Amino acid sequence: MNLPNSSTDIPIESVLLRRLCLLSAVWICSVVLLLPGATPRVLYAEEPAYPPPDFTVAFIGDQGLGANAKAVLDLIQSEGAAMVLHQGDFDYVDNPDAWDQQINDSLGATFPYFASVGNHDLAQWTGYQQKLQARLDGIPEASCGGDLGVNSACHYQGLFFILSGVGTLGSDHETYLREQLAADDSLWTICSWHKNQHAMQVGSKPDEVGWEAYEACREAGAIIATGHEHSYSRTRTLSHIESQTIDATCDDDPNTPDADVCVSAGRTFVFVSGIAGIGIRNQDRCLPATTPYGCAGEWAKIYASDQGAQYGALFITFHVDGDPKKARAYFKNIDGEVIDSFTITATNALTYHTFVPIVIR
What we know:
Layout: E1 15-17, E2 27-33, E3 55-60, H1 67-78, E4 83-86, H2 96-107, E5 113-115, H3 125-137, E6 143-147, E7 151-156, E8 159-164, H4 173-182, E9 189-192, H5 211-219, E10 223-226, E11 232-235, E12 238-240, E13 245-246, E14 261-263, E15 270-273, E16 299-303, E17 312-320, E18 323-333, E19 338-346, E20 353-359
Parallel strand pairs: 2-20, 3-4, 4-5, 8-9, 9-10, 10-15, 14-19
Antiparallel strand pairs: 1-2, 3-17, 6-7, 7-8, 11-15, 11-16, 12-13, 17-18, 18-19
């Protein structure tokens, strides 16, 4: 919809703006226009704080160079993903040019591809960051502030996501996370970083992040995307991450094969998507290898060498079935098998804005 510009179409002294924000899942914000003798028009509207319908994002980590990595990128292309969020560890050979070319060969030079730094990216991080910045500069709809891939907050197509180097590179990550999350009211928010806490992966990785980063994102209702451990694992809805406390109030659709999840202030889920092309590891924790898994029952899906894992990616399609608060997610491998399939419901109190013109006669 083409909207008038307040500075040219309507004299500023004739406009009174008033927001009436109701305590509901939707902010209803009224625009009051005082236009004697004029035809009422909407003054302006804010960018919707949610993605367009059927907007698909691919999540990968731990990639490498070669046939397996290319097969995952080709899968991303064939699934119709509109962007990639890469949770660190790129090519493992410190070659930014080769890594960037591999992406270009499958997805194209202008494909929206965002990434967080991984430990295997440190030796040539300046080169990788330059590649990521050049790609960002070619996407006019995207904006990122801060130190890209280390402490950076980004908006693209109604998604808000933070690319963090917590546990890997940089400092003051927890403060940055809290400040950026508090300043944004997008319906869908993602925290993306590389490393893990031991209890938030099913292999042998130690505590390398700290719980504060996880809990800051949970408190804001942000999806937490990680890599580092070379397997795929996904939790149920957690109301406290350090204690792996499951939120039993999240409804689970019996028509979906795997546990659905909810994101809102105080609850979210965590996943590791670390099998994008270079090595698949075994399940060391929360055995047995079949459901119901061990530990506290926090894992909804585990896919490692114990389960015969093949390389793949997690796909999340936002704004499905005409509902901006609903997303559909699935992990698919390069053999075409869907390993995990679930629905995500966002129930944040502050979601999006609707502007209603009110004419005072």
